[in-house]
Amino acid sequence: MSHFFAHMARMKLIQRWPLMHNVRSENVQEHSLQVAMVSHALAVISNQYHQAKFDPYRAATIAIYHDASEVLTGDLPTPVKYFNHDIEAEYKKIEAIAERHLLNMLPEPLQDDFKALLVSTDIPTEYKALVKSADTLCAYLKCLEEGRAGNDEFITAKRRLEDRLTHDPLPAVKDFIHLFIPSFRLNLDQINQML
Q1: Which residue has the higher pLDDT, 67 or 91?
Q2: Residues spanned by the domain of 62
C-alpha cells in the first residue's frame, strides 16, 4: 500500500499567499495546474519561436509536481523563505527531505519514473528554469486578478514579479507576456467581444 496519492490529494488543502489578504484564495493544487499549463505553453513557444528542443509534456508534468513537497512542509511565504540566506538554505534542506520522503512512499518499481518529477536535484536545469518562469508568471497573474478585484494587498508583490519577469532569461516569457497577459486585464464581456 502506498500513501503517495493520498498525500497528493491534500495539495488542495494547502493555501497559497497565507500572509496576504486574498479576495479569492488559491490552493497549491489549482496553482500547480496553472503552472503546468503555462510551462507547456512556454515550452511550445520556445520550440516554435526560439528553436529550443523542450518536450512540452515533460515540462507540464514536472510543473504538476513542482510544489508537491508542500503537502509535507506547507507553503512557507516568500518573505519568510527568502528573509536571509540561512533561512533559505535551511528551507531548501527541508524541501529536499520532503521530496525524498514522497519519493519513498511510491512502490520501488515506480520510483525511477517519479524521481525526475519530485526530486529537484534530478530535474534538468533547463526544465527547472522553465517551470520557475511559469511559476513566476502565475504568481504575477494572481496579482493581476487580485488587483482587478480591488485588492491593493498585492501591489508590492506585483512590482517585484514584474521586475523578475523583465529580467527572465527565457525568451518565451516575453512572448507569453505579449501574447496572453493583456487578456487578464479585461473583464469577461471585453474578452468575449474580441472573439
Answers
A1: 67
A2: 4-179
From the number of C-beta atoms within 10 Å of its C-beta (0-12, 13-18, 19+), residue 161 rates as: buried
Amino acid, res. 127: Y
Does residue 49 lie in a domain region?
yes
Vertex 26 angle, CA 165 and 90, to 5°: 65
Residue range 130-143: average pLDDT? 98
Distance CA 19, CA 52 (A): 38
Taking residues 165-181, report their average pLDDT: 97
* Set of cell numbers at residue 88: 533559505
- For 188, the grid coordinates are 469577461
Phi, psi dihedrals of residue 54, rounded to the nearest 5° = -75, 150
For cell 523563505, name the residue: 81
Residue 91 is part of a domain; what is its CATH number? 1.10.3210.10
